Task: structure prediction
Amino acid sequence: MKIFTQGIPHTIRQGLSMNQIYTKFLLLTFAIVLAISILVSWPTTDSNRAEAQIVRTNSTVFTNSNAAPPVPPIVDDFVPEFANLPTYDEMADMDKNSVPSSVKLIDILEFKSPDEMWPSYSKKELPVRSGENWLGLYRTGGELFLANSKVTRSDRKGYIGPGDELYDWLKFERKGELLFLVKDVSELKPGKINTLYSKEASTGGISLEGGYKQSFQLGNKNYVLRVTTGLQRDGERVNVLMLESGGKSQMVTFNRYYKDHNTLYNIIGELIWVGDMDGDGKLDFYFSEYGYEKGGFGSNLFLSSPAKDGRLVENVAGFSSAGC
Result:
């Protein structure tokens, strides 16, 4: 026991028993070993903590249910039925020759808000002088007829429309629900008209979209309206509105076809009215054209009686309003 006690200070040898000294020695040894272990393992602990954080972060990235799903590749399913169609510039030149500049049409159905007594239009776009007589297409009790209607215009005070345009109210004689007003179309006369379909203000119209096909029976004649696809001479893709009857087929109009991940423009517009408006026993129709510009609107009236050169209908009047 002298060997153990020789290295212990004199004061400790005098005040402590051998068991107490042995216990103190073991505790001191344990404390030293623990301290050395902590110092040696400390960097490893940080490294493990960083790796664990990386794992948790990566796990969050790949398992987050709010993450956007992968975008599927675009499927190019456009198959043109027609090719070598006129370009838009060529069509514009043809339209100038087919519709006289004096012909006027004002769509009412699209611009009449249920919250307002009268429709309103940009001052620049409203081709009306107060006191003029126009021919209106009215609906009363489920029947449609054409009737003369005197119109007036007045300032829509306190209102500025899209493009900072000033607007006017358009007022007319109330003879029923007015769909449109037309002027200078010699083929049209006042009286009841034969209607096969007409859009109502409270319901949506028929969408003339890709794949649309519908038959209309007028007397002993059957007509088919359908929407298909085509390519212009410059390679532009287009939607095509076709009218077919009695072995004849006419391309009525076409507009741009566009498709990407978020947007599909495969629509000509909306069918508003179909029947016999000019009284010749053949199909006439009125439809709106889809506009890419927000708030824009365009429409066209096609009649059969002025058709020539083997065609079924001709464009006799149209209306357009710019958007934002």
Notes: The CA atoms of residues 45 and 190 lie 94 Å apart. The two ends are 105 Å apart (CA to CA). The first helix runs from residue 2 to 5. Confidence is low (pLDDT under 50) at residues 1-16, 43-64.
